[in-house]
Task: inverse folding
């Protein structure tokens, strides 16, 4: 009986060690693969020209139909590789509803199928999401307060649609 308990305990410890080792290696590989641009000098979405003075820029290959609305400020842009891109922007108003409406309208106008969408107003600016599929990209957008609950932000993930053989 005692031998079984000891073996069970050793098995659990071994599994934990393997899981920790595998997850840290995967994290390091993912960190090397991603190209990130973040700075304290963020760019207003209405001023895409910038002066090269440390402003965050949309990643190369960003779909033109997903231009950021004028009520947002780009704070992070990441090329995740393999046709996947991600940006984070703050919402400059008290509510994320106008940003949600603008992005959903842009996707609809560009011929994307809105697979799912929801928005709930709140004292933190609102919470919501949009999932859409177009001929070239799939898009997942999330709205909600930042980590400090001081501003509302929008995170947009874009992935190229793989061609079916």
Result:
């Amino acid at each position: 009986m005692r031998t079984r308990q000891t073996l069970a305990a050793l098995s659990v410890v071994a599994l934990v060690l393997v899981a920790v080792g595998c997850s840290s290696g995967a994290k390091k590989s993912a960190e090397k693969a991603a190209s990130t641009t973040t700075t304290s000098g963020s760019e207003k979405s209405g001023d895409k020209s910038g002066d090269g003075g440390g402003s965050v820029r949309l990643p190369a290959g960003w779909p033109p139909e997903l231009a950021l609305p004028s009520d947002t400020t780009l704070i992070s842009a990441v090329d995740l590789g393999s046709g996947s891109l991600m940006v984070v922007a703050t919402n400059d108003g008290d509510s994320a509803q106008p940003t949600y409406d603008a992005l959903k309208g842009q996707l609809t106008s560009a011929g994307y199928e809105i697979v799912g969408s929801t928005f709930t107003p709140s004292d933190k600016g609102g919470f919501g999401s949009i999932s859409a599929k177009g001929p070239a990209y799939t898009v997942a957008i999330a709205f909600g307060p930042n980590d400090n609950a001081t501003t509302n932000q929008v995170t947009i993930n874009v992935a190229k649609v793989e061609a079916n053989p």
Observations:
- The chain has two domains: 1-33, 35-160.
